[in-house]
Structure formats: C-alpha cells, structure tokens
Specification:
By secondary structure, the protein is mainly α. It folds into three domains: 1-67 and 239-325, Rossmann fold (3-Layer(aba) Sandwich), CATH 3.40.50; 84-238, HUPs (Rossmann fold), CATH 3.40.50; 329-487, Arc Repressor Mutant, subunit A (Orthogonal Bundle). It contains 21 helices and eleven strands. Helix 13 packs antiparallel against helix 20 and helix 17 crosses helix 21. Bound molecules: glutamic acid (GLU). Glutamic acid binds next to loops.
Length: 487
C-alpha cells in the first residue's frame, strides 16, 4: 500500500487537511505501507517555501512522519511538483498526440462571458468546447506565431464515469456535466487535475484519501488515467470538517490551523486523537488512544460519510486528559515557552537554570485544572507575583483574619521552607493557639499567601510557593509574605 499527502503550500495547515494527512498516515502505518509527502506547488503565485516549511513543521509536530518527500527523497523523485515540469510536458505531449487534448485560444474575457451567460441561463458553467475542433495544423501555426494557448483535455461525450469510493460506494458522473478541463495553463504550468494523475500514477500511489471537495474532480482524473492507459488508485473522500453552525470550518469559527492550536497550548497527541475521531471510530466507543494504537485499528470501513462537526470543548477535554497523562519532564519542556511568553520581559521565568525547576514545581497546581498549556501561567501566577495590598485587604475582610495570620506566622517562624507536612503542623498549631478551625482558619491563610479567594489546594500551593521562592530571586516565601502582612 502506498499513500500520500499532497498539500498545496499556499498558507497554514488547516486542521481539515491535517485530518486528511492523518488518515493517510494511519492507513499506511497500520498496513506497513509507505507514506509519501508531495508538495503541490504549481500555483506559482500563491505557493511559498515558507508555507511548505510550516506545513512540514506542523506534520512533524503532529508525529506524522513520511518515508518519501522533498526533504528525504525516495524512489520516485522529485517530490515537489514545480520540479517535475518536464514530466508533465511529456505526458501532455502524449495526450496531444493521441487526440485526447487540444489547444485552446479562448481569452480570459471570452471564458468569463461564457460563464456569465451560462449562469444567467441557470446552466452549469462549463467550457463550450469552442476550440475543440480547430485543426491541429492551424492550432500549431497560431501557437508558433506566439498566441497564448492552454491545453485542454477532451472529455468524451455522453458517457457515465463511475468510480468506487471506499467511503461512499459507487459514484457516477455523466460526462455531459463536465467541461473539457485545462490541463496545461497558457503559462505552461500544469493544472491540478492533470499533475495529480501523473504523479499518483508515477509514484505508484495505491490509495488516495482526501477531502470531499475533490469528489467532482475525480471523474476528470479517472478519464485522464484512462486516456494515458494508467490504472487509477482507490479513492476515499472524507466529508468536510464543519463548524458548530454546520458550515465548513473557517476563520470565523476561531482557530483553524494546526499552528494556532499549537500556540494555544494543545498537545500534539490530543489534537491527533481528536482529529482521528472526526470521521473515524474504532467501533467500540473507545476515545483516548495513542497514535500507534489508532494506526493498528484504523480502516476506511469505519470512516463515516456524514459531516463531522469540530467540537472545541471535546478537544479541550481530551487535551486535559493528555496533560494529566503526560510525562512531567516533557510537560515542563512544552510549558516553558508559555511561561516565557507570559512573563514580564525579561521575567523571572526566562532566567536559567532556576526556571525549569520552578515550572516543574508549579505544574502540579495547574494540571487537571486547566485545558491548555496557555492557561497555566495565569493559574499559577500567585506563586510568582504576590500583591501585598490585595492580600491585606482580603485578610482584613475575614472575621478572624489578623488573629489567624498572627498565630500562623508564629507557627511557621520555626520552620524553614514549608513542605506539605510542615504546613499541616503549622496549621495545627495555629488552630490550637486560636481555637479557630476549618474554613475560618484556612481561608485567611489562603488569601494572605495567595492574594486570591480561591485557587489550588493549599497542600500543593504552599510548598510550591516556598520551593519557587528558593529557586527564583524576587519571589517572596510564605514566611516573608506573612511577615510583610504583620508589619
Ligand atoms: N493539492 C491538493 C489539495 O491540497 C491535493 C488534493 C488531492 O489529494 O488530490 O487540495
């Protein structure tokens, strides 16, 4: 089995395309097939190398590695369409020589007029075929005289074209609805429907999984395979990824590109898991699965043909699960940039080597409580930034605030940096000294040390404050905070 992902490098990698890449990858990996990356950059105006680099980086981040591609090579090079122009020229010549293609001299204005009048008559806008019957010699003479011409493929008249879609079953188009497509533009560049056939055939692709926006291109491609005497691959068209309003997922729904989800602090394994379930299910209701397990279980038979709605809440839930399950060291690694971005510049988190250990100390306060890495710095901000006025105001608002703080302050004076155990011991002493217990005891301690009415468990928060105070200069310890409040 040989599968491919064939992005056009004209922007960021959309999550819908990432899902296409993923399904191809899952099938290839699960069946010990090959996964090929081919860059479809024949639209020279819109394609950029920066976009290609971005797409490759996103695929790598998602863990979708390829066996063949422009960077790693392989048995069917080159893997960038802009480097294959001589190949397309050869096949175009074959189509021309066998009468399957002809030169079209229609100007853009003429074609636009045709389109407009077809639309006005409520007819499908389809090329009229005006240049189809030009004599070959005349066409060549006009070309030699320098007239611009595109090469069009001859769609055979009055025929059904049927292909079996692995997701939808047999799909049939009648050729009467298909105009002769341009296969080589007047600037010499190959058109998508032509280049994709030549490449999939020469690269020995066996299965093509792609978005259903390509389903109406498929009969054109099937006819080009036929004209070239080549065997088409098996096709599977995925229904599009929709927003909550059932319109195709776009900017106005929020984040749409893999890089945006990455920047918001989703873990790659969460995004991959979520995308896999957007149209596929393992059949037993299981949801949290590692990518390798999904590859073992993946099959096109369980891909749904109904449209999939992108549910950000579900993705957030999954991300929270993956953050909880994540190896702590790796989580620190992934969380660091979010602290660096959140911190004042240059903030305490950007100093070395304390910050890593500090991030590691505060992560347990956030994991399980937030959905995304991006939310962690805000959640643990109280560890780093203690606002005396705010803490004093909140303590003053508590019935026994001053009393509790005085007793707690006396109790911790004897301890060094607080641990969970010494904090408990100090709280017990404060209770014995004041007779105040429960919420009336712990709430004043919380507001005094954190300057917040609520937050992570004190058992976790207090040791974290003292640990970070020991690691980063300028962060007040619990003892310093209390002293400050009593002064
Ligand atoms: N370059 C095309 C796209 O990004 C590929 C479509 C296909 O898979 O055939 O839509």
């Amino acid at each position: 089995m040989r599968l491919r992902f064939a992005p056009s490098p004209t922007g960021l990698l959309h999550v819908g395309n990432a899902r296409t890449a993923l399904f191809n990858w899952l099938l290839a990996r699960g069946q010990q097939g090959a996964f090929v990356l081919r860059i479809e950059d024949t639209d020279t105006e819109r394609s950029t190398r920066a976009s290609e680099d971005g797409i490759r980086a996103d695929l790598q981040w998602l863990g979708l590695n390829w066996d063949e591609g422009p960077d790693v090579g392989g048995p069917y090079p080159p893997y960038r369409q802009s480097e294959r122009l001589d190949v397309y020229a050869r096949y175009a010549q074959t189509l021309l020589d066998t009468g399957h293609a002809y030169w079209c001299f229609c100007s853009a204005e003429q074609l636009e007029q045709e389109r407009a009048s077809a639309l006005a008559a409520a007819a499908p806008p389809k090329y009229s075929g005006r240049c189809r019957d030009l004599a070959r010699a005349e066409a060549e003479a006009r070309r030699n005289a320098g007239e611009a011409a595109a090469l069009r493929f001859v769609i055979p008249a009055d025929r059904d074209v049927t292909f079996t879609d692995l997701v939808r079953g047999p799909v049939t188009f009648h050729t009467s609805v298909i105009g002769d497509p341009v296969i080589v533009r007047s600037d010499g560049g190959p058109a998508y429907n032509f280049a994709v056939v030549v490449d999939d055939a020469l690269m020995a692709i066996t299965h093509v999984i792609r978005g259903e926006d390509h389903i109406s291109n498929t009969p054109r491609q099937v006819l080009i395979y036929e004209a070239l005497g080549l065997t088409p691959p098996a096709f599977a068209h995925l229904s599009l990824v929709m927003g909550p309003d059932h319109a195709p997922l776009s900017k106005r729904h929020g984040a749409t590109s893999v890089s945006e989800f990455r920047a918001r602090g989703y873990l790659p394994e969460a995004l991959v898991n979520y995308l896999a379930l957007l149209g596929w299910s393992p059949g037993d209701g299981e949801e949290l699965m590692a990518i390798g397990e999904m590859a073992r279980r993946f099959g096109v038979a369980r891909v749904s043909h109904s449209s999939a709605v992108f549910d950000v809440d579900k993705l957030a839930w999954m991300n929270r699960q993956y953050m909880k399950a994540c190896d702590p060291e790796r989580l620190v690694e992934m969380a660091m940039p979010f602290f660096q971005r959140a911190g004042s510049n240059p903030g305490p988190w950007t100093l070395d080597p304390g910050p890593r250990a500090a991030v590691s100390a505060v992560l347990p306060l956030a994991v399980g409580a937030v959905d995304r890495l991006e939310e962690i710095p805000e959640r643990v901000k109280f560890v780093l930034e203690w606002n005396r006025d705010e803490a004093a105001r909140l303590v003053a608002a508590e019935a026994d605030g001053q009393k509790v703080i005085a007793a707690f302050g006396d109790a911790i004076a004897e301890f060094g940096p607080l641990t969970k155990e010494s904090f408990r011991a100090a709280a017990t002493r404060a209770r014995e000294a004041t007779g105040i217990k429960g919420k009336a005891l712990f709430h004043p301690i919380r507001v005094a040390l954190t300057g917040m009415e609520s937050g992570p468990e004190l058992d976790l928060a207090i040791p974290a404050i003292d640990q970070v105070a020991g690691l980063l200069g300028g962060v007040p310890s619990c003892a310093v905070r209390i002293q400050n409040l009593r002064a």
